[in-house]
Amino acid sequence: MARRSRRAEREPVVLPPEQRTVGQLVGESIRTYERNFWKALAIGVPVAVVNVLVWSAPSGTARFLAVPATALLLTLSYVAACSVVTGAPLRSRSALIAFGTGLLVFVPFPLLVAFYILPGLAYLALVGLAVPAALVEGLGVRSALARGIALARVDFVHVLGGLATLALVVLLTQAGLFFLLREYAESTLRLAAALASLVVSPLVLLGSALLYVDQEARLRSRSERATA
């Protein structure tokens, strides 16, 4: 009994979504991944395909032509991740609108990341929550984009910090695999990177969906305090 009590004391207090820190966001993303392992792994498949497409493009022009496919596949994974986190059904009109909204959101993303990753993350932090807003709240594209920006502005530092931290987890994992396999053939390195994106990328997408939950709770809490 005493051992169990000491273990409970060491465990961090789980904060509600409106108070969740970036560290707890990452922890909750991992727990969501564990609870929905096979669904999460399926979410990573389109992301792995995106990486293969980008790496296989022989020139800058070919990579530019891969942008529409990248937006399509990333949106597919993100909408699925939002469904896993929120429980919103994928077989619905709202899911189709969320997918269309995601296409608008993700088309500029590869172009921004090509210059520097921080502008791409800042852009996603500002407008990315429009996708779960469309899925969960049944909004149209224009209303979802406005809602996503409104949610992001409630605590933009939390959204950007959460995305940056989750992205860093993926980058470090892939860098670790490259370091371990750096003496092998280039094809082996690409395979390792593809497997890493398959396994780790769902964490970023699930965490991004959880940011919607956090920001919606923060906005609701702020509105309740204002009317109290």
How are the SSEs ordered, and which strands pair?
Blueprint: H1 2-10, H2 22-35, H3 37-56, H4 60-65, H5 67-86, H6 93-106, H7 109-115, H8 117-127, H9 130-137, H10 141-154, H11 156-180, H12 186-227
Largest sheet: none
Question: What is the straight-line distance between the termini?
Answer: 43 Å
Q: What is the typical, i.e. mean, pLDDT?
A: 83
Rg of Cα set = 19 Å
Which of globular, elongated, flat, extended, rod-shaped describes the shape? globular
Residues in helix, %: over 70%
Q: Please identify the structural class as seen in this structure.
A: mainly alpha
Please report which band the strand proportion falls in: under 5%, 5-15%, 15-25%, 25-35%, 35-45% or over 45%. Answer: under 5%
Structural domains: how many: 1
Care to give the gist of this entry?
The protein has one domain.
Quickly list its features:
globular; mainly alpha; single chain; 228 residues
Structure commentary:
It contains twelve helices and no strands. 83% of the residues lie in helices and 0% in strands. By secondary structure, the protein is mostly helical. The chain has helices at residues 2-10, 22-35, 37-56, 60-65, 67-86, 93-106, 109-115, 117-127, 130-137, 141-154, 156-180, 186-227. The chain has one domain (27-221). The radius of gyration is 19 Å and the shape is globular.
